Amino acid sequence: IWTFQQGQPIDPSFFHARIDKAIQRRAGYSTGARSACRLINAESDGLPGLVVDRYADFLVCQFLSAGSEHWKDEILRHLQRILSPRGIYERSDVEVRLKEGLKPRAGVLRGEPPPDLMPIEEGPCRFLVDVRRGHKTGFYLDQRDNRQALGDYARGRTVLNCFAYTGGFGIWALKGGAQHVTNVESSASAVELSARHVEVNDLDAGKAAHLQGDAFQVLRELRNANRAFDLVVLDPPKFVESRSQMLRGARGYKDINLLAFKLLSPGGVLVTFSCSGLVTPDLFQKIIADAALDAGRDAQILRTLTQAPDHPVSLSFPEGAYLKGLICRVS
């Protein structure tokens, strides 16, 4: 559904206006030449099935519905006309397209191909993004403000960063003065890039460790070794894809957070997330509370977190508020 206004024509000018409006809303947000930002956030910008992210002077697009695919050429022409990117790359290599009768696709749509690793800047931090093969469109732009928030709690602390991907939270922790960061990630290529990020940010390599492995297993091994950390970050993938997976997914969230609580030093901080849209904030908080109780830890919520402002949520599409996070302190 493109519009609820009866009689409104769905033509090129309709898409031009909505694209222009979405981009204007983000004026002043992440404006550096090497910055990254979500320009169009699908339903929440009135353009269901369309995602457009900017990485420096390249655009990365996802066409996730039959409707957005139908208007693809017109959308691309307008993006090229108003933004003049060096290139536009498609990352529609997602299974949701199959439900629309579309094949997953990826490749150059306009202009130059993106570099193998795209340099971007996020505040004082520098990252290298693989927009061709990385998660989502290459980087978790929705966690931008939460990475920065983590830095406020990192000074002097030992940090365990689980499901680290390419180490974004770890870099912000080190920039915030962390004593040491241990990144845990299952992907070998992401672990390699995590180590490179320490180098490109001119940080002390001796203050960072990069472990490849399953986060659940690594946390159990650390618990069995009586290790302790002052700050633990949990940013797992989506555990709940459908309502039929709710019980199993909730158990996964509880298990991983219980292990984290057991690894925290007195006065330690847990930064924990769920990106499962079906898991409501109230349910997520209850899961974390149950995990703390079973771990025998008394915990307080210091802050609640959500996705960055370039990932807005339409009041008529509450499902868009998928990311929720808590910063908790244990006694």
Give short descriptive properties of this protein.
5-stranded mixed sheet, alpha/beta, Rossmann fold, Transcription Regulator spoIIAA, 2 domains
Describe this structure in words.
Helix 5 (168-175) links the parallel strand 8 and strand 9 (180-185). The protein has helices at 12-25, 66-70, 72-83, 144-151, 168-175, 188-200, 215-224, 246-263, 281-295, and strands at 36-41, 50-55, 58-63, 87-92, 105-111, 118-122, 125-129, 158-162, 180-185, 208-212, 229-234, 264-274, 299-306, 324-330. 43% of the residues are buried. The model has no long low-confidence stretch (mean pLDDT 96). With 331 residues, it is of the alpha/beta class. It folds into 2 domains: 12-111, Transcription Regulator spoIIAA (2-Layer Sandwich), CATH 3.30.750; 140-330, 3-Layer(aba) Sandwich (Rossmann fold). Helix 1 packs across helix 3. The strands form 3 sheets. A 7-stranded mixed beta sheet has the order 10-9-8-11-12-14-13, sandwiched between helices. Strands 1-2-3-4-5 form a 5-stranded mixed beta sheet. The protein has a two-stranded antiparallel ribbon with strand order 6-7. The chain is built from 9 helices and 14 strands. The N and C termini lie far apart (50 Å). The protein is globular, with a radius of gyration of 20 Å.
Helical residue percent band: 25-40%
Low-confidence stretches: none
How does the helix and strand content classify structurally? alpha/beta
Following the backbone from N to C, one meets helices and strands in this order, namely HEEEHHEEEEHEHEHEHEHEHEE
Counted by DSSP, the helix tally is: 9
What can be said about the biggest beta sheet? 7 strands, mixed
- In CATH, the architecture of the largest domain is 3-Layer(aba) Sandwich
Overall geometry:
globular
Number-wise, the strands total 14
N/C terminus separation: 50 Å
The level 1 CATH classification of the largest domain is Alpha Beta
Side-by-side strand order of the widest sheet: 10-9-8-11-12-14-13
